[in-house]
Amino acid sequence: MKKVIPHTHFIAAIILSSVLASIGLIGGLGIQLVRQDILAFLPLLIALPAMNAIAGDYATLTAAHLADPESNKKHIQKLIVALFTTLPVSCIGVSALSLGIAQFKGFEITGELAVEYIKLVFITLYVVVFLIFCFIYLTKKALLTLDVNIDDTLIPVANTIASVVMLTGFAIMTTHFA
After folding, report:
1. pLDDT, tens digit, 9 for 90 and up, residues 49-62
2. How far is CA 58 from CA 80, 126, 155, 158, in A?
3. Considering only CA atoms, which of 134, 137, 126, 133 is closest in space to residue 169?
4. What is the pTM of this model?
5. Torsion angle in degrees (nearest 10) through CA of 52, 57, 60, 62
6. 102-123: b or e for each residue (b if 16 or more CB lie within 10 Å)?
7. In angstroms, how far is CA 112 from the centroid of its own chain?
8. C-alpha to C-alpha distances, 119 to 7, 10, 78, 85, nearest whole angstrom
9. SS3 helix, strand, coil % of the chain, rounded to 5?
10. Which residue among 35, 65, 107, 121 is least crowded, i.e. fewest CB within 10 A of its CB?
11. Is the pLDDT of residue 26 over 60?
């Protein structure tokens, strides 16, 4: 059994979190490039905080479970099933609420537009969650070779990557509606 490194490097973990928050600005740059398009399509603007929160939550849950020294192949398979069976609820919720709020605010939504928007929300979130899972899995493997506590490192790194990937995916999604 792999030894577990105690939580003794709090200052290093806080510095890492600060550096990672700065890296998170990269996603903001992508949004800056498409800001006019986002403003033109109100449902995207409404959905942005929720989609970013979903990506961060899935990253945190994934990192917490994968960082567990007891995680094995069966545990990881259960995690994958849980992630990808709960994701449709999040996608439907974000889509329905953002379209509903936009329509309430006077944004005209056709059936075709709604279907296309919902498809893009699904595709974006599924791709983001898949990429985050792969990144976390590979990062865990790399961190196991170092003498660091995986919990203190993997979770903040996963959250930052989730934000950057989600905001980049969101910027790409926005160009579709431009």
Report:
1. 888 889 988 998 88
2. 11, 11, 11, 9
3. 126
4. 0.75
5. -110
6. beeeebeeeeeeeeebbebbbe
7. 27
8. 42, 42, 26, 16
9. 85, 0, 15
10. 35
11. no
